[in-house]
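Intended use. Records like the one below are meant for learning the mapping from a protein sequence to its folded structure. Do not use them to infer anything beyond what is encoded.
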Amino acid sequence: MLEKFAREQYDQFIYINMIGKSGQDFLGYFHEIYENRNAVRSQPLHQVIKAYDPEFKDDKSTVVVIDEIQESAAIYSRIREFAREFACDFIVTGSYLGRTREKGFFLSAGDTDSLILNTLSFPEFLEAFGLREHTNSYH
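Structure written out for the chain above:
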């Protein structure tokens, strides 16, 4: 669903899965460029993304999706910078975000919105289809 949304709503969709090869590649550029930012004149995070995807454009027509963010404390700790330093949109997801509460992870203050998705209860399912009045007959 997220990929469908991103492809339909944006001209450019960049997907990075921190658990897969794309995440390993992105981290390689991050370590090479961002961690040596004294050698970089300006916008090291922009340069990291540009190295990962040379077609990257930092504007409102671009979305960068970082999936399984909990796999990298270094990238998780950059969420605030993504929000403040880029014109493009970022969507950050993870299947085990509880891990971000462990030592070694930075808990960002501000600039983040959290959305927890859970399965629907049966009454909620009925509500979604306008059938809530049938709830009482399923106890």
